[in-house]
Amino acid sequence: MIELLQHIVDGLSLGAIYALIALGYTMVYGVLKLINFAHGDVFMLGAMMGYYASAKWSGEAQNPSFWGAALVGILSMAICGVVGFIIERVAYRPLRNAPRINSLITAIGVSFLLEYGGQNLFGPTPNPFGILPRREALNLGGLSLGYVDVIVFVVSIALMLILQRIVFHTRIGTAMRAVSWNAQVASLMGINTDFIISFTFVLGSVLAAAAGLLYASKYPSVHPLMGLMPGLKAFVAAVLGGIGNVPGAMLGGLLLGLAEQLVAGYWSSSWRDAVAFAMLIIILLVKPSGILGRSDAEKV
Amino acid sequence: MQTIRALDLGFAATARRLMKSALPFLVPIPLLWLVQATLANAPGFEYAFQNVNHIGIAIILAVSLNLVNGLTGQFSIGHAGFMAVGGYVSAVMVMNGPTDDPYRLFFLMSIAAGAGAAALAGWLVGKPSLRLRGDYLAIVTLGFGEIIRVAIENTPAFGGAIGLSPIPHRSDFGAIYFAAIATILIVNRLRNSTHGRAFLAVREDEVAAEAMGVDTTGYKVRAFVISAAFAGVAGALSGAFEGNLAPQSFTFVRSFEIVAMVVLGGMGSISGSVIAAIVLTLLPEALRSLPPINLGAVQIDLVNLRMVFYSLALIGLMLSRPRGLFGSTEAWDLIGNWWRKRRGVKSEEARKAAPDAGELLLDVRGATIRFGGLTAVSDFNLQIHPRELVALIGPNGAGKTTVFNLLTGVYQATEGSIRVAGRDTHGLKPSSIASLGVARTFQNIRLFRELSAFDNVRIGCHHLARESMLAAVEESGLAGIEEGFIAERAEQLLDVMGLAARRDVLAKNLPYGEQRRLEIARALATNPKVLLLDEPAAGTNTKEKTELMELIRKLRDRFGVAIVLIEHDMKLVMGVSERILVLDHGVTIAQGLPRAIQKDRKVIEAYLGEKYAREHAADIEAENAEETAHESLSPTPSKGERDSSGDAR
Known about the structure:
The complex is a heterodimer of chains A (300) and B (649). Chain A has 300 residues and is mainly α.
């Protein structure tokens, strides 16, 4: 029983990180109908900037403190927000009316540029990562709850609540939803779609950076290709919940994290990576629009 | 109809045909053999031939991936995964097979097995993901490529992370280039067949492709499976050439290199892929020979920067030349066009035997469709006899196009039955319904924009062709005759629609009116029994409308088709149709002869409002009474109840 609970806790903690990344995929897909392949690499950049800020620039990593970590986090989130803005502005905006496949190729190009540019800039070898002070794990009657996991839960729940607030209860969130329904009509209603799309990218990139920092704290190492697998899995999570659907991405992320942890715990950890893709193929066969998504037929 | 050259099925003739089809594959063999025997093993040439052979393998990979990414417009980024499947299956066979392999027959079998395994993997991956849009395929193939690598690393039989070694060196320059040339020939022959046009149609517009009788999912899966099989061949050849296989050489970096070749060369251009394969294989070699850059503390080898180059090139190309360097043109076309004369356009009457007039072509009973709570069309009934001209009218949003979507299988009816020539179409795909003889045009024109007018019409002939993919590759007599027939038919149709001079113009470059006519020509090419025209006169001027009216009659008389027309222009509708059906809010409010419809009170209400109908009720009825008194015509009674005019009959 304790073992099962332990797996659930670990799964939810991993799932919360997937959910944060998946939110960026799903929001961008919502407004642009584009799978932003580079999203996983923004996630990597978030962790990498955290590493540079703490270990190289400030020396914070030698003597980690909670407030120092918060500062590092905000800095890396800000940098990634700017990077997200630049990616959209330079690579995606000129192709907004081009065939989808062209945007897709560009997205893949951007992704590889970040990965291999990263390999040349940061070096290909993994670096140790630690911006949070080390604390003993909490012991709740046999159930062990790591300090990092507590931070993961608190930060990701807080960020999701803020996002929920932004998307559903603010003017700019309403505009985002309008653009995702129909960008052309939204612009006729006086919404500056370019601004909304940029804003969506920045928001998604900030969340990805936060996820990158949490992920790197949980599995303490950073390297330029670290975004690939979590990025792909978060995409699966977004499809699972229904791509373009914000609550769906959260649900999908948590479900995927749980499923992975349970498979790793009760079966074999070498099949952990296969879970996401097996799930993807099953969703595609059974309900391509995802759990919370709606299917809309193309208008002829 | 032009006389068709008879197909001689005698033994000698068959042998001759097969020979002719195989000739291009056989011609290079002596040359390859000569080079292999003299240069390939000569001292001093080892490094050169290593590169040459790498180029050959890259050509197989790039040209085969082009079939999926270029011709069919899908996006796979896991080609290296299929290469690995083929390579490992073949290597395991060869390593456990006989040590002595005369004429390399066993190696040949192992290549076939590798190709088969890769094709099977392609089918497993493609079948679920290709039902959806291309983006999913990209993700699934990327994931698949990674999973395959992880699976190999964890399988002791495949050598785990260390890989397989030593694999007997059974492949050489000759074998690799024979395969490369065969790949180019096969993909090129496929492209020039009716199947190739089906691939292109899928790339251009899936909905229109289905309406023309192309089974889009089927074609995507076929392209994907064929492409995977070739990747398997490349893997087998590569393993037996290098003498070892390691999972590290099949990462997504490898896949990405192949994608870069296809995109840079031009999506859909085979020669572009070949040239890009050569350049991108030699590029890292060239970069390797350059000295590293010194950036103070860091030294950057230029070879390591090649992935950065590729990604920058990819982004830059998409922003400036989205179709790749060569676009979809071929090097040999550029040379060929230079001297080729245009053939004269032949035109001959293509009258078909009119179908039996008693047969019901289209029989719709009680068709209803609901979208959530909204009933878009309810209890729709329509019977169409051969050669009838029926118009479907109604205010905007009445559900007219929805009726067309029901008839063509784009939507499934929630209730009721739709029969085409006696066959229930429930559950059939649009492409199957098109083969039953229902063709359509679209309200918002859906031509294959990047293809020529001629190709657009030829795709319409798709389901008439019976040639198998194998026959297309073989370029045997039968496929040739069929191609000739299709070309002739397409040219006749272009001629009938007055587009003969526009044969080679890209559809997107035609003026609006001609695009509409091209859509009709394409629909007629499917050899329909019923032609559904969705607002053919939209956006045309008065003169063009009169011409269109003539044309519609002419089509009916000449091709013996029944025509159902959605149109808002009342002059056109009243002038051309023999029977009119009026829809309002999804309900059939009247049907009958044009004259009766013009005076139907419900129709007037629907178009001009209830108030107008009430105020002018006296006039209308007086007129109706007068008409019926004078004429002995008996209009088909409408479904909705009629007031006074009904009694008079």
